[in-house]
């Protein structure tokens, strides 16, 4: 109750200021956007309300719907996107899966800034440092298509932040947001403010989220699923000249007391800070619309098991990373029929994680290990993309990326640890990564577009795959050891996409095949013994000969009169490892269907989600089958204006029938939340 009062007070304080909605998408913002051409992005999910209403092409899209109704937190938002799933270890910081592939294989960035989580158990995927209120859009790409983002074999996720808006007529704007979720008795509050004056515009936002343990579909409390976090952002744009902008972003995120019921450990705190500085101008020599960017970020993560009962041996596992980098991107030429864009980028990163084990018997000595032994990594890349319109029906785009990477460890202790395996980490491993793609786009009619894509890409092993030391994986109950001598992983990516669009009906589909070579996978090593008590054995990362993934997504929207519509989406992936056995943690077929009924300016949205059972399980990963389930949700939405204040109310109930279910790829035996009543109130002035 006190929290609601605080929020109402905040709303009131901002309310008495002479504030107005930031309705105009001004030239400066669209100019900023025009600088951000990436070659191929499968889905660009626009999150800013104003963006969507101002952009006819995006309006009425499927992503538009989810932004509005599932934008309460980033996990929920990502989870319903075509081709994306969220793997959970608890009720916080889900790990995005792109077509069943986890964050080891794709490139994650925030405004093009590379960032690496500091947890050896992946408790802190980069998405967990971003809040929906600060997002303008999310770029999702799959496979080896998006070469400008970096070198990955499963695609990329890039989070674009909302920018301050220059608006001389309405120099102030603000909004506040309050959310309540009954299943975890969780309250979220957020506030943001935009101010512009003369040559300066800035935006500040703050978010606080706190949840208790949630209840699963059997009515059982899921212990250690609580969390609390603060997120705060300051963005500043300075107009150096009429057509030159200097832009600075700061993001801070502090999570504390986060429980991970599926893992044996929790988080005392996880702190991240990001700094980015960009300069945008119309031209440097031959380069049109260049953006120059410098950035730095760091993450501190403290993981322990002090709150758990019946622990045989207590452990402390702190980790940290810091990353610095920069890029220059722009167009070498851009005309009405063709365009050549390029990007030069560089980053270096440092990762260290340790583990101290404290035996209950005080006579025994503590044990200490470096699980990430001061890993250092540098990467420099060059990307080029060329688009050419052939005629009214045909165009093609082609591109390449070359990246040079250096990886090594700078710890003598780490070197000693590796000598057990007859390996060394101090000598520098260099890799040349290559990426090529070509896409043919055929538009025989205005209502139909078909795209054929061919791409090839490579990635270097992750820090854990290359240098991780006895990292315990609860999913298959093995300790994992990295191999410094791993080769790059390669993916040959084929895809066909079709879109049919009339005024009432949109159907889009994607069918893909990934043919991996040297697919990196943990392989059981009978000659080594596990360090973790109770673990079954040791797995070492190896380049397995091949892996294959097939699958696709279909989504469609049918608009009725009066603003009502149907949405349907379907996603499916089939994965096979080097011995033609199923790959682990692959999601089964999933179908979503919803009807959005408009009545008197409000919307009522019944929704059903069906997930098939997953019987294709990986024995090597100790996987078990997962049952099929049905979920039913009901949402309501109402927006209205009072004077110049905009109100939006979202509410509803999720998992109406309190179904006890889990996603196949989730960690542990943990069930997802049962019935949840939620309400969200947004106020914009
Ligand atoms: Cu952790």
User: Largest sheet, if any?
Assistant: 22 strands, antiparallel, barrel
End-to-end span in angstroms? 24 Å
- Tally of distinct domains: 1
Bound molecules: copper (II) ion
Oligomerization state: single chain
How many β-strand stretches? Answer: 32
Describe this structure in words.
The longest helix has 15 residues, at 2-16. A hairpin with a 2-residue loop joins strand 11 (227-241) and strand 12. 8% of the residues lie in helices and 54% in strands. The strands form three sheets. It has a 22-stranded antiparallel beta barrel. The protein has helices at 2-16, 27-34, 49-54, 62-70, 74-79, 412-419, 463-467, and strands at residues 43-46, 84-87, 95-98, 107-110, 113-114, 135-142, 155-161, 172-181, 186-197, 200-211, 227-241, 244-258, 266-280, 283-284, 287-304, 313-334, 338-359, 367-389, 394-409, 429-445, 448-459, 471-473, 478-481, 489-501, 505-524, 537-559, 565-576, 590-599, 602-611, 629-642, 645-654, 676-684. It has seven helices and 32 strands. With 685 residues, the protein is mainly beta. The chain is globular, with a radius of gyration of 25 Å. It has a single domain (2-684), classed as Maltoporin, Chain A, CATH 2.40.170. Copper (II) ion (CU) is lined by residues 119, 121, 123, 267, 301, 303.
């Amino acid at each position: 109750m006190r929290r609601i009062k605080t929020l109402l007070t905040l709303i009131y304080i901002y309310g008495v200021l002479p504030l107005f909605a930031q309705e105009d998408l001004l030239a400066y913002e669209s100019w900023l956007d025009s600088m951000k051409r990436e070659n191929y992005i499968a889905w660009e999910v626009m999150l800013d309300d104003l963006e969507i209403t101002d952009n006819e092409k995006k309006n009425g899209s499927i992503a538009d719907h989810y932004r509005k109704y599932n934008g309460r937190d980033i996990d929920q938002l990502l989870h319903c996107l075509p081709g994306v799933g969220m793997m959970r270890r608890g009720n916080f910081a889900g790990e995005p899966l792109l077509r069943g592939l986890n964050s080891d294989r794709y490139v994650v960035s925030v405004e093009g800034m590379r960032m690496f989580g500091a947890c050896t158990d992946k408790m802190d995927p980069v998405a967990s440092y971003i809040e929906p209120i600060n997002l303008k859009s999310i770029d999702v790409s799959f496979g080896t298509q998006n070469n400008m983002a970096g070198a990955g074999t499963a695609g990329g996720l890039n989070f674009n932040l909302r920018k301050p808006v220059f608006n001389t007529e309405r120099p102030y704007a603000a909004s506040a947001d309050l959310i309540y979720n009954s299943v975890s008795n969780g309250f979220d509050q957020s506030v943001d403010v935009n101010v512009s004056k003369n040559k300066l515009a800035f935006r500040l936002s703050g978010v606080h989220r706190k949840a208790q343990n949630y209840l699963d579909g059997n009515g059982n409390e899921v212990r250690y699923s609580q969390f609390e976090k603060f997120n705060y952002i300051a963005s500043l744009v300075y107009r150096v000249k009429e057509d030159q902008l200097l832009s600075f972003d700061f993001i801070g995120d502090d999570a504390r007391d986060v429980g991970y019921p599926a893992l044996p450990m929790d988080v005392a705190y996880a702190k991240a800070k990001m700094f980015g500085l960009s300069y945008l101008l119309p031209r440097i020599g031959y380069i049109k619309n260049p953006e120059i960017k410098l950035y730095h970020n760091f993450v501190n993560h403290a993981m322990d098991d002090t709150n758990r009962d019946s622990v045989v041996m207590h452990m402390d596992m702190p980790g940290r990373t810091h990353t610095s980098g920069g890029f220059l991107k722009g167009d070498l030429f851009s005309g009405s029929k063709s365009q050549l864009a390029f990007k030069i980028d560089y980053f270096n990163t440092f990762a260290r994680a340790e583990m101290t084990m404290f035996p209950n018997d005080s006579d025994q000595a503590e044990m200490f290990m470096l699980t990430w032994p001061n890993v250092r990594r540098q990467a420099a890349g060059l990307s080029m993309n060329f688009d050419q319109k052939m005629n009214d029906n045909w165009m093609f785009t082609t591109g390449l990326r070359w990246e040079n990477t250096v990886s090594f460890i700078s710890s003598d202790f780490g070197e000693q640890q590796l000598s057990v395996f007859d390996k060394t980490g101090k000598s520098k491993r260099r890799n040349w990564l290559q990426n090529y793609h070509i896409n043919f786009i055929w538009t025989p009619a205005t209502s139909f577009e078909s795209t054929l894509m061919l791409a090839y890409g490579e990635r270097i092993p992750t820090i854990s795959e290359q240098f991780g030391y006895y990292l315990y994986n609860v999913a298959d109950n093995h300790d994992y050891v990295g191999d410094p001598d791993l080769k790059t992983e390669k993916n040959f990516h084929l895809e066909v996409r079709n879109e049919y669009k009339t005024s009432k009906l949109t159907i889009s589909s994607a069918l893909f095949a990934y043919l991996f070579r040297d697919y990196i996978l943990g392989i059981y090593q009978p000659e080594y013994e596990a360090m973790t008590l109770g673990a079954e054995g040791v797995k070492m990362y190896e380049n397995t000969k091949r892996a294959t993934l097939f699958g696709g997504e279909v989504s469609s929207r049918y608009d009725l009169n009066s603003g009502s519509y149907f949405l349907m989406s379907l996603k499916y992936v089939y994965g096979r490892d080097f011995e033609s056995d199923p790959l682990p943690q692959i999601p089964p077929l999933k179908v979503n269907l919803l009807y959005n009924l408009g009545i008197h300016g409000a919307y009522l949205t019944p929704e059903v989600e069906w997930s098939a059972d997953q019987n294709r399980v990986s024995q090597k990963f100790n996987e078990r089958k997962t049952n099929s389930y049905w979920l039913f949700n009901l949402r309501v939405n109402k927006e209205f204006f009072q004077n110049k204040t905009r109100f939006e109310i979202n509410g509803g109930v999720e998992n109406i029938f309190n179904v006890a279910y889990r996603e196949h790829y989730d960690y542990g035996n943990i069930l997802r939340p049962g019935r949840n009543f939620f309400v969200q109130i947004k106020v914009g002035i």
